[in-house]
């Protein structure tokens, strides 16, 4: 997943909501004024939930489950609050042509699409094949990064989480067509999207 404000906040400060969307947001920069307000509101409400609800639960569970194991080894367990922001380095996975132009903290290292799970190797070989002219995908970041690398256009059918943002960015950049995953989707709609992508000279 690309670097987003939840991640950068652990090693530096949150990214500006005026230029960076939440990882679950469908907004793609450049933002309208309304989108900027929506992104700011998302940061405010998620931060409030994290500070007043989630962090209390995490602190309780840390004291109950983790601290005793540290102390059993003869060490003093640090307070949960001391541990929250002590990450020394964070890795984020993205593709340089797909990620937003963002000023990132020095302690955040971007891995430009090099992480690879064994289960992805078959898909990787298919996208690399010269006869692959189109990729139908849910719009996950690794699949999207791979299609960029091999220059394969996409029909994106997002289902969950960051897939909506990834497909929206791909459409905006001109190498994808979005098809909504809903009960009314039919073969004709999918066929139309495939034909549009295949006949588009871009």
Automatic annotation (TrEMBL):
Signal peptide: none annotated. Keywords: Glycosyltransferase, Transferase. PANTHER family: EG:EG0003.4 PROTEIN-RELATED. Belongs to the UDP-glycosyltransferase family. This is UDP-glycosyltransferase UGT40K1. It comes from Operophtera brumata (Winter moth). InterPro entries: UDP-glycosyltransferase, UDP_glucos_trans. Pfam families: UDPGT (PF00201). One of its GO terms (molecular function) is UDP-glycosyltransferase activity.
């Amino acid at each position: 997943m690309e670097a987003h404000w939840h991640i950068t906040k652990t090693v530096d400060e949150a990214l500006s909501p005026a230029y960076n969307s939440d990882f679950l947001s469908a907004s793609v920069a450049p933002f309208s004024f309304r989108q900027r307000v929506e992104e700011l509101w998302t940061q405010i409400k998620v931060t409030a939930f994290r500070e007043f609800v989630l962090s209390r639960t995490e602190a309780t569970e840390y004291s109950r489950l983790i601290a005793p194991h540290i102390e059993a080894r003869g060490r003093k367990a640090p307070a949960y609050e001391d541990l929250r922001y002590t990450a020394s380095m964070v890795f984020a996975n993205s593709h340089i042509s797909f990620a937003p132009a963002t000023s990132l903290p020095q302690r955040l290292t971007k891995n430009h699409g090099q992480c690879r799970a064994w289960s992805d190797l078959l898909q990787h070989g298919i996208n690399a094949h010269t006869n692959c002219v189109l990729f139908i995908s849910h719009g996950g970041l690794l699949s999207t990064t791979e299609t960029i690398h091999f220059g394969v256009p996409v029909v994106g059918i997002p289902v969950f989480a960051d897939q909506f943002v990834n497909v929206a960015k791909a459409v905006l950049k001109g190498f994808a067509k979005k098809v909504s995953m809903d009960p009314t989707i039919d073969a004709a709609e999918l066929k139309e999207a495939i034909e549009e992508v295949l006949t588009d000279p871009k």
